[in-house]
Amino acid sequence: MEVSHRFWRKRDGRAGFTLMEMLIVVAIIAVLAAIAIPTFASRSDQAKEAVCQTNRQTLLGQLRYAQVIDGLTQEQADGIRDSLGAICPAGGTVTVEVGDTIRVSCSIHGGGSGGESAVSQGLIQDFRDFILNPEGVPSNEINRNDSLRTHFYEANGNKWPTLTVDGVEYQIEPYYSEAGKNAEDRLDYIWLFARQKTDGVVNGRWSVPLLYNPVDGIWYRSYGYDGKRPADASITFSSVEALDNAVKTTLCGNGSALKWRPVDSYTESN
């Protein structure tokens, strides 16, 4: 019996944990959980905020586009908002204010400045008005992008508005797709791009780093083959609809990521 007793003591020593060891393991698990849970929660909150911001920006772009095309009442704006369904994944209430500028805000994530792209929206409308009444443009050039841009630049005081991204200044310029020559309203064929500041008008060079999408009111930056570094890209689309589809679906050369990605922070000035 003594031999058997020693055998079980040795076996217990090899196979089991002491109470102290179990307490240590439990303590370690508790510490790891205390660290991990807030981290996961924080990342979840950040993801929800990012989705809310993107959805609000998309709504803002649609509202601005509707305002330019047909005008926009508060009731119409609320209807467009409601048609999008749940905008904030965190359950925030999204409100829209229609005035001189359109403001979209969330009860949880804030927002509502509404004026980040006011210069861009104004430039698109001004260029549209100029195309519909092209003073000084020869009759045989009234549908040519180059001629319209050159005369518009002169009518605008020989200057372009400024877009500042990461401390670098770019000039904002309009582009007109000549496919819209028979359109009743040319807005479906006008967009903006930005390139490093130059003197005067540069026509024929349509590979640039930054593109403004009138549909969602967002500036996009283009990336190169591997999707890791910014690189210039062509902005010669047939229409605003084609542009919107391209920036949201076109992949970089190796297919690893989207070629066009939203610019997180920028300022505009005349």
Give your account of this protein's structure.
The protein is of the alpha+beta class and 270 residues long. It has two domains: 23-114, no CATH class; 143-269, TcpA-like pilin, CATH 3.30.1690. The protein has helices at residues 2-15, 19-70, 74-83, 118-132, 145-155, 240-249, and strands at residues 94-98, 102-106, 110-111, 162-165, 168-176, 190-196, 207-208, 210-213, 218-222, 233-234, 260-262, 267-269. The chain has a seven-stranded antiparallel sheet. A three-stranded antiparallel sheet has the order 1-2-3. Strands 7-10 form a two-stranded antiparallel sheet. 26% of the residues are buried.
Strand order of the largest sheet: 11-9-8-6-5-4-12
The number of distinct structural domains comes to 2
CATH fold-level topology of the largest domain: TcpA-like pilin
Which CATH C-level class of the largest domain is it? Alpha Beta
Q: Report the biggest beta sheet as strand number plus sense, adding barrel if it closes.
A: 7 strands, antiparallel
The helix count comes to 6
How much helical structure, as a percent, in the residues?
40-55%
- First-residue to last-residue Cα separation: 97 Å
Any idea what the shape is? elongated
Order of helices and strands: HHHEEEHHEEEEEEEHEE
Mean pLDDT over all positions? 82
Q: Which runs of at least 5 residues are low in confidence (pLDDT < 50)?
A: 1-13
Q: Roughly how many Å is the radius of gyration?
A: 28 Å
Query: In CATH terms, what is the architecture of the largest domain?
Result: 2-Layer Sandwich
Oligomer: single chain
Strand content: 15-25%
